[in-house]
Amino acid sequence: MITLKDTGLFHEVEPFEIQKMMKCSGAVTKEYKTGDYIFREEDMPQFLYLILEGEVSIVKDFATGRQDILYVAGTGEVFGEDFFCPEQKPYWFNAVANEKSIILLFPWKFFFGFCSNACEHHQQLIRNMLEIMAVRSFDMTKKAHILSSTTLREKISVWLLESMKDGVVDTGMNREQMAAYLGVTRPSLSRELMKMQKEGIIEIDKGKIVICDEERLYSPVE
User: Fold this and answer.
1) From CA 22, how far away is CA 1, in angstroms rounded?
2) d(CA 143, CA 85)
3) I need a labelling partner for 194 at 20 to 30 A (CA). Which of 52, 65, 112, 115 fits?
């Protein structure tokens, strides 16, 4: 399990200062089983959630039964920051544990009030939170760019190009999660990935996708 000091939320905050904030804020740690809901759509936000161990999917369910994965958060990451505002509005999505997870529930109200000494560690916490929100906003903008593609091959190609590092994409998702992230059906995604592998564009190796022909991703052809 990761320590609070090693998370982005508490970057450059000393351990003794973290302990003071835990006591002052009333933060608590909870354990969730695979498939448990951390919160549901229409619940009222109360906490910022920090994953100490495990993985959580942020998902939007549709009346048709289709599910869209907005993003997946892992150990050391936060979620629920989308509703970081003093004017309360209900959640627009669900948060579901993908595996056994230990999560710190950090009350939102702590972010909106400084102590009488205007503690530096409290200010650092706010700076860290703003940086986390900026990164998440950028990631969601990239996803919108991916989903704007007109064909499945284009969606996959843009996603791979945006995600690869040194010619490899470590998806961090199973096939069902990948399909939900891209807004397509699992069978369609699997067929297209197999076609791309057969054409020598990619090579699929368990949870990783190796880019074999990057140039063809820039001009995808069905």
Assistant:
1) 17
2) 23
3) 65
Q: What pTM value is reported for the model?
A: 0.75
Residue 32: strand pairing partners: 101
**Around Cβ 58, how many Cβ atoms within 10 Å?**
20
Q: Shortest CA distance to 30 belongs to which of 38, 22, 18?
A: 38
What are the Cα distances from residue 114, in Å, to 22, 26, 107, 121, 192? 14, 15, 14, 10, 52
CB 58 within 8 A of CB 93: yes
| 23-42: pLDDT as tens digits | 888 999 999 999 999 999 98
Per the CB < 8 A criterion, the answer to whether 18 and 10 are in contact is yes
Q: Which amino acid is at 199?
A: E
- Residue 216, token pair as written in the block: 């063809």
Q: Quote the CA–CA distance of 185 and 64 in Å, as a whole number.
A: 13
Phi and psi at residue 160, to the nearest 5°: -65, -45
